[in-house]
Amino acid sequence: xxxxxxxxxxxxxxxxxxxxxxxxxxxxxxxxxxxxxxxxxxxxxxxxxxxxxxxxxxxxxxxxxxxxxxxxxxxxxxxxxxxxxxxxxxxxxxxxxxxxxxxxxxxxxxxxxxxxxxxxxxxxxxxxxxxxxxxxxxxxxxxxxxxxxxxxxxxxxxxxxxxxxxxxxxx
Length: 171
Description:
Layout: E1 9-12, E2 16-28, E3 31-40, E4 46-50, H1 54-57, E5 60-61, H2 65-76, H3 87-100, H4 103-119, H5 124-145, H6 149-161
Antiparallel strand pairs: 1-2, 1-5, 2-3, 3-4
């Protein structure tokens, strides 16, 4: 089981980066459960995560440098998304990738939606997912590389530009 310390930054899949603010124990009858109190950066909300649910949720440590490099390389590589699937199937597949917690899968979602956007208008839900993927990549990359978010956006844009794509702005 993965454990975290107070003050540590972690990734909450599909929600983004958060900081462990507290570790507490609560009793439920005769049972005791330990919890992480996590403050999410994106919405500045707090979430309580039971220790027993950490792996189910996919809570994880920040990505390492080499994985961040793989993400940038992936974004710069040519490739086409599978646009044959209807939007419901595509949305389900992308939702699963976003919830996986993998930064590379978040990059796959963003790149696929950016490429799809060239061909047709994205649905409202896909636009929101694209914005969330962009935000998650920017924030985690800025933490991993120890740079500010504008520099992280520039790194992502340089990688995407190699395939003719543009990093979306915030909604």
